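// run 5 | inverse folding | seed 20
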């Protein structure tokens, strides 16, 4: 409501994010200087909600240190509807190790 009173309607497709990076941690804060219209996915990422475990979506790299960017990340939807993201570089390395084991086993 504070955003609407100060700036008017919230732009279509966006939600208001209380930006804790601006120094305020109060959940009930109504200071519009602490707010920013962002897509829902960005709001969730900033809040630590992830695909799978809490906070996973906020991580910028995989456990091996590869970046979670558009080129190195693929998304997978499980049968139960939950989403996961995976590192392409790690997946390729796992496939190489698997093929090497299979080659050694068959030799």
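// decoded
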């Amino acid at each position: 409501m504070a955003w609407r009173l100060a700036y008017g309607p919230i732009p279509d497709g966006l939600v208001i994010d209380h930006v804790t990076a601006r120094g305020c941690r109060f959940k009930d804060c109504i200071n519009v200087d602490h707010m920013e219209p962002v897509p829902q996915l960005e709001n969730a990422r900033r809040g630590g909600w992830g695909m799978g475990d809490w906070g996973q979506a906020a991580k910028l790299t995989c456990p091996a240190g590869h970046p979670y960017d558009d080129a190195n990340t693929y998304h997978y939807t499980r049968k139960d509807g939950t989403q996961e993201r995976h590192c392409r570089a790690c997946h390729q390395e796992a496939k190489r190790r698997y093929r090497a084991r299979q080659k050694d086993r068959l030799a």
